[in-house]
């Protein structure tokens, strides 16, 4: 029996829903295929040169699901992920929630309590709240990327992707371009809606039920309904500290 839309919270890990089953078919996640592709992927990584990868199943499934369970494509994406991190030590050398406390005080990134129509969690990034007198661009970006990676530990989110509302009202165009260029580079699962560029909000309402959107985006929910992601990210301090041991061999 399918669940009702109201129960599809952004933190849900698994549920019986026809849309989720449809996404699994689209991503070629058939019975037995997940195990087979995961084993093939691990075999490729065991013999990889110049790389010490994390071999945790859930971590690897992030890349396999985005590649529709094609191990070679997933391998290229994983290599790109690690090599990109090695090129930007100013962000990833101290890639821990505890190194984003100043950025967390801005409260510029939150989530809707319910998922979008495509079952993706919906993040709201209010760039107008940023203050580069208080926090560096690198720390701000570090926090955003940690949020993305935290949400991508969820198997449903690995399948559905993440919808991001980027509210750049009061933010410089140059910094916006700088931020957005990171999204496809590091991850491949984003549906991005810009505001106020799409001020008619039609595209946003096509993806997210207005009942769950804050009033400022043409919705019916108060801004106070947005989920504070700081505690959720901070709970992953140990996980991200363990991840620091993996990457490109220097």
Automatic annotation (TrEMBL):
GO molecular function, one term: phosphatidylinositol bisphosphate binding
Gene3D superfamilies: CRAL-TRIO lipid binding domain, N-terminal domain of phosphatidylinositol transfer protein sec14p
Cellular component, GO, one term: membrane
Alphabetized SUPFAM superfamilies for the sequence: CRAL/TRIO domain, CRAL/TRIO N-terminal domain
Matches recorded under PROSITE patterns: CRAL_TRIO
InterPro entries noted in UniProt: CRAL-TRIO_dom, CRAL-TRIO_dom_sf, CRAL/TRIO_N_dom, CRAL/TRIO_N_dom_sf
CRAL-TRIO domain ranges (all copies): 88-197
Name under which the protein is recorded: CRAL-TRIO domain-containing protein
Lineage start: Eukaryota, Metazoa, Ecdysozoa, Arthropoda, Chelicerata
């Amino acid at each position: 029996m399918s669940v009702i839309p109201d129960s599809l919270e952004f933190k849900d890990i698994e549920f019986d829903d026809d849309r989720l089953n449809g996404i699994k078919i689209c991503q070629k996640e058939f019975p037995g295929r997940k195990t087979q592709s995961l084993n093939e992927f691990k075999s490729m990584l065991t013999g990889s040169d110049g790389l010490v990868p994390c071999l945790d199943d859930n971590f690897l499934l992030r890349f396999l699901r985005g590649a529709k369970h094609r191990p070679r494509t997933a391998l290229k994406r994983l290599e790109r992920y690690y090599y990109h991190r090695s090129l930007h030590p100013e962000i990833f050398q101290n890639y821990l929630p505890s190194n984003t406390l100043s950025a967390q005080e801005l409260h510029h990134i939150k989530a809707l309590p319910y998922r979008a129509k495509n079952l993706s969690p919906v993040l709201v990034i209010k760039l107008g709240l940023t203050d580069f007198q208080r926090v560096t661009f690198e720390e701000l970006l570090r926090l955003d990327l940690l949020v993305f990676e935290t949400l991508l530990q969820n198997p449903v989110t690995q399948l559905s992707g993440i919808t991001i509302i980027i509210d750049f009202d009061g933010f410089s165009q140059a910094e916006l371009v700088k931020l957005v260029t990171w999204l496809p580079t590091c991850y491949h699962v984003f549906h991005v809606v810009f505001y106020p560029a799409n001020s008619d909000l039609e595209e946003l309402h096509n993806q997210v039920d207005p009942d769950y959107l804050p009033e400022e985006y043409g919705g019916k929910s108060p801004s106070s309904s947005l989920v504070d992601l700081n505690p959720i990210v901070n709970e992953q301090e140990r996980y991200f500290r363990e991840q620091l041991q993996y990457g490109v061999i220097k």
